[in-house]
Amino acid sequence: MGSHERFRFKTLDELRRRVEELGLDLEFDEDLAPLRHRVKVGSYETPNALAVHPMEGCDGERDGRPGELTIRRYERFARGGAGLLWFEATAIEHAGRANPRQLTLTRQTLPHLREMLEHSLQLARQANGPGFRPLTVLQLTFSGRYSKPDGKPAPVIAHHDGVLDKAMGIPEDYPLISDDELDALQDRWVEAAALAQEAGFDAVDVKSCHRYLPSELLAAHTRPGKYGGAFENRTRLHYAIVERIHDEVPGLMVTMRLNAYDGHPYPWGWGVDERDPLVPDLTEPIRFVRGLRERGMQMVNITAGNPYFTPHINRPYDVPVLGGRVPDEHPLLGVARIIDVARQIKRAVPEMVVVASGYSWLRQFLGNAAAATIRRGDADLVGLGRGAFAYPDFARDLVNDGALAPKKCCITCSRCTQIMRDGGQTGCVVFDRQVYGPIYQAGRDKRT
Ligand SMILES: Cc1cc2nc3c(=O)[nH]c(=O)nc-3n(C[C@H](O)[C@H](O)[C@H](O)COP(=O)(O)O)c2cc1C
């Protein structure tokens, strides 16, 4: 429905008209007061309802410590005034890194992460007032199919996939990660959670999205053994990790960034209609989130899609990465879909705090959509990914001025992703040009 169109809306009314023409359930409020809501998450309370999503810059040191640009990114995010800072994908061990510069949490890197966190919180106070304390979550990851710890693909797969195996050149007899290895990964996750607590983070995220290992496992319908087939098996690892962190790392909050919808064909996809992967079927994701709540989880961050394979589902855009596809759907449809997925989860499990994703395409009107989302009870917080790279002060401007400056908003040009694909350290090429313009160019020169 509705072919692709670039963002060219000058007024909210123009945007509302297009939403109406497309028949989408997407509302925009003029009153942005809901963005100032303080949100209770367990024993914490966020200073507002805006979040910075995890956004990795591929700029850690070889040993997994934050690098100069990593520290700079969190300085900017922290000053920006969001009530929730969700720190980026941080590997629980070297083999699970998605790139050689992905952060890794070990006993050796812990002091550096602690220093970065403390420094960020100090800057958040300086910029936003002495009582300002954002909630902090560290995303813990094992990249699985997309592991590339030494720069070359080193996939660790939970199940064969009729689409992705072919696309990635993974042969039919490529071994699956064994049940014993998955058991051992539970230990790594719990150890990393303990280190994250020592570093001072309020919470960890058992990253289960974007088709990295735990996300792929949720769709392991065809896998034999105790981690495959039935729902109980496909969710076994996640539930065990959550329960064990609660037992073994008391006082640390456990959260999850969750793909509630893969947009990938059954039986290899999760959260999809068995006949049509373009149609979400959230029966299992809702059951899963209920189970997480029963196990004491207070907050989930809902996302969707596969950034390598269906990036338009994960983050609707104007321009794809080079050689990428302009999807045959209107980006507003993508925005409405991802917002609806979070809404369905929130409506089904209202006691769970839900963070919603996928708003950056809406540019200067994203605050209006976020306010409507929160007012309607469709999510509790709204986060930005690319929008935070481009405009790290977005939260302060929305909360204090009630508006975003149109000329500072992310234009969804995919150049931040392009840098990643080219193997560089990433950020916003358009609005942080002095730093990332040359990196972008160097990556392009190397590839062409
Ligand atoms: C360069 C880049 C890095 C990202 N890093 C992460 C990450 O570390 N963890 C994660 O869960 N999502 C990551 N994402 C996804 C974003 O958090 C977010 O879900 C996505 O960009 C859609 O939100 P947006 O429309 O506000 O950009 C990344 C996206 C981009 C473009």
Bound molecules: flavin mononucleotide
Q: What do the pLDDT scores average to? A: 97
| End-to-end C-alpha gap | 36 Å
Written as H for each helix and E for each strand, in order along the chain, the element string is: HEEEHEEHEHHEHHHEHEHHEHEHHHH
The low-confidence runs, each spanning 5 or more residues with pLDDT under 50, are: none
What is the 3D form? globular
Give the number of helices.
16
> If you compute it from the alpha carbons, what radius of gyration comes out, rounded to the nearest whole angstrom?
20 Å
Under CATH, the topology of the largest domain can be stated as: TIM Barrel
Q: Summarize the amount of helix as a percent range.
A: 25-40%
Number of domains: 2
State the strand order across the main sheet. 3-4-6-7-8-9-10-11
Given the helix and strand composition, which structural class is it? alpha/beta
Report the count of strand segments: 11
The CATH architecture of the largest domain can be given as: Alpha-Beta Barrel
Description:
It is a single chain. This protein has 448 residues and is an alpha/beta fold. The chain has 2 domains: 402 residues, TIM Barrel (Alpha-Beta Barrel), CATH 3.20.20; 34 residues, no CATH class. It is built from 16 helices and 11 strands. An 8-stranded parallel barrel has the order 3-4-6-7-8-9-10-11, surrounded by 6 helices. Strands 1-2 form a two-stranded antiparallel ribbon. It starts with 11 loop residues before the first helix and ends with a helix. 54% of the residues are buried. Bound molecules: flavin mononucleotide (FMN).
